[in-house]
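Milestone 3.1: sequence recovery, worked example.
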């Protein structure tokens, strides 16, 4: 669902009362975040999340692996470690069983890469194929990453390039070359495990993963939760190869416009996008992402340790801006 639609649906629930009645529920709908967190001991809390979606690529194994990586990302966005998962799937009755097997195999092997195990699941007959995971992880109750964990002066980092949404959308219209699509697939398959581990070691507290609501949609959630703002340096934002060209040609998913409407309605004049960006790059910041990177903040004193941590693990990371005092988003 679009962020505005989801917000409307949840408004009728007595979320605050539910949270107060369950003090061990550290993160839930009363304080919406990337996953639920429930304390089971002084030093252990359970992280729980679920995510599934229709095919984003033609290859069944790759779709299963991407869907799994995307679901696992919510555990990493809370600073957690993956334990196990249950598969959630729906397939047409006439779907070849060999294809279903490949979807499940892709998901199970990506889960194993994360250090977890597939423990079961549930399937239904559905006209449109869907697959994903209900993931259980663990985190120390005092080391949870939260969307609202930003503080003025923090440096902002992003662990993956933007552009999966526009590339996948273009590929469905045969408008993305194989090299461009392959680059997006490699990015979607990369786990946010390293990003979460590096961030946890330096004491990060403010984080989210960039997925369906787009870069600015998730950034807007963070500034609302934190009562702070972010200033983004557009020149530092990493883009997948070919994403800018496809964006300039208007290969948008339906999610881009919905995300943009919500962010603009939510922030109003507290959203500032410099005219020098152009409509293509500006649109990319609202475009939905699949299995995107972690967006996280750390004090200036530990920013160097973040860079060194990623270099030591052989993965890229980009410093893209800073946290400001005034609530809002500025991109320039």
């Amino acid at each position: 669902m679009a962020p505005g639609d989801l917000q409307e649906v949840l408004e009728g629930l007595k979320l605050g009362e539910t949270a107060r009645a369950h003090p061990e529920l550290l993160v839930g709908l009363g304080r919406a975040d990337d996953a639920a967190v429930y304390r089971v001991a002084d030093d252990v809390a359970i992280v729980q999340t679920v995510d599934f979606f229709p095919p984003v690529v033609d290859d069944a194994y790759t779709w299963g692996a991407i869907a799994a990586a995307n679901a696992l990302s919510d555990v990493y966005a809370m600073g957690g470690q993956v334990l196990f998962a249950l598969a959630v799937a729906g397939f047409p009755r006439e779907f070849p069983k060999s294809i279903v097997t490949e979807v499940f195999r892709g998901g199970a092997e990506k889960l194993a890469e994360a250090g977890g195990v597939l423990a079961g699941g549930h399937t239904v007959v559905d006209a449109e194929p869907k697959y994903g995971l209900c993931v259980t992880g663990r985190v120390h109750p005092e080391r949870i990453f939260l969307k609202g964990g930003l503080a003025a002066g923090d440096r902002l980092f992003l662990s993956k390039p933007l552009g999966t949404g526009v590339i996948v959308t273009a590929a469905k219209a045969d408008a993305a070359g194989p090299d461009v699509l392959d680059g997006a697939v490699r990015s979607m398959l990369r786990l946010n495990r390293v990003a979460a581990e590096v961030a946890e070691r330096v004491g990060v507290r403010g984080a989210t993963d960039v997925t369906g609501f787009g870069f600015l949609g998730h950034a807007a959630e963070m500034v609302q939760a934190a009562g702070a703002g972010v200033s983004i340096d557009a020149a530092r934002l990493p883009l997948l190869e070919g994403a800018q060209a496809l964006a300039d040609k208007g290969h948008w998913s339906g999610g881009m416009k919905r995300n943009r409407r919500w962010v603009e309605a939510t922030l109003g004049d507290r959203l500032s996008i410099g005219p020098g960006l152009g409509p293509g790059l500006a649109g990319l910041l609202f475009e939905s992402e699949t299995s995107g990177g972690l967006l996280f903040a750390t004090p200036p004193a530990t920013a160097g340790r973040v860079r060194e941590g990623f270099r030591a693990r052989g993965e890229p990371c980009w410093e893209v801006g800073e946290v400001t005092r005034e609530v809002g988003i500025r991109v320039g």
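The chain has twelve helices and 13 strands. The first strand starts at residue 25 and ends at 27.
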